Fold this sequence. Notes:
Blueprint: E1 9-13, H1 17-34, E2 38-42, H2 46-49, H3 54-57, H4 65-72, E3 78-82, E4 94-98, E5 107-111, E6 124-127, H5 131-143, E7 148-151, H6 157-165, E8 171-175, H7 176-181, E9 190-191, E10 206-211, H8 215-221, H9 227-242, E11 251-260, E12 263-274, E13 281-289, H10 294-310
Parallel strand pairs: 1-2, 1-3, 6-7, 6-8
Antiparallel strand pairs: 3-10, 4-10, 5-8, 5-9, 11-12, 12-13
Amino acid sequence: MSDYPLKPLRLGTRRSRLAMAQSGQVAEAVHRVIGRPVELVEITTYGDTSREHLAQIGGTGVFVTALRDALLRGEVDFAVHSLKDLPTTQPADLVLAAVPVREDPRDVIVARDALKFTDLPRGARIGTGSPRRAAQLNAYARSHGLDIETVPIRGNVDTRIGYIHDGELDAVVLAAAGLSRIGRIDEVTDFLSVDTVLPAPGQGALAIECAADNAELIVALGELDDPLTRAAVTAERSLLAALEAGCSAPVGALADLLADGQIVKEMRLRAVVGTTDGTRTVQMSTTGPVPETYDQATALGRELATEMLAQGAAGLMGERAQ
């Protein structure tokens, strides 16, 4: 960054409290690594302004397109996304320069009276805007004799938790990582095991994106990249792409590392597809060597997706994304 040592880098971010918090954390990290000041440039996306449910407006890319347009127009130097919001197809003129260390990928419950999921009363109303969460919660409830109703909701964290305080809902489901980044993790009443609810592909991870022709910035941002996180989320997103499912589809996936003591031995990829009412699911897993290349990581996801499609996964996703 020798040409303009004092010129701030412009970081494009959504305006939401969560986006601003995670972008601010990345800005600090970039400043530490590069030594240049970073200024946040707030950008409003369609996903922020639309009042429709994410499943209705397509989910895929609704929080991303405006940020990418700003990058391509040169209005910002790089952008920070929640990785689970990114479409699986990467534009040729943009590059994911870094995928930092992933936060807790789990989903959590925030419930009235500090209740855990399994302690909720019969007929409990649980708010979520995610078909994936609804599918898995309903499937778990059916198999464990619980009586719940999943209610579609939208809005920021304050709005969603507000539904509990005003008595409209008994609980809401949120991402642990998001609550952690805005300093509200202590409001969680139950962390949902990934054996109960698999997270969205890429959940808990951030993506730092910049123009593909900005080689100097790509190298600098690469200092924040975590190879194991990148391998895991690449496998998860490869599975999502192979299922031809958008990021609002009822698909859960998590790649994690299997270690023998301090030595990482293998990567396990688990995935689930289900109808939102929880009546039918396809859940499978595969284990292989820790991917060392992009192609190896994508192969892991593709292979598991192929097995799931053979078990009827396509018919459970509703209208498949094109």
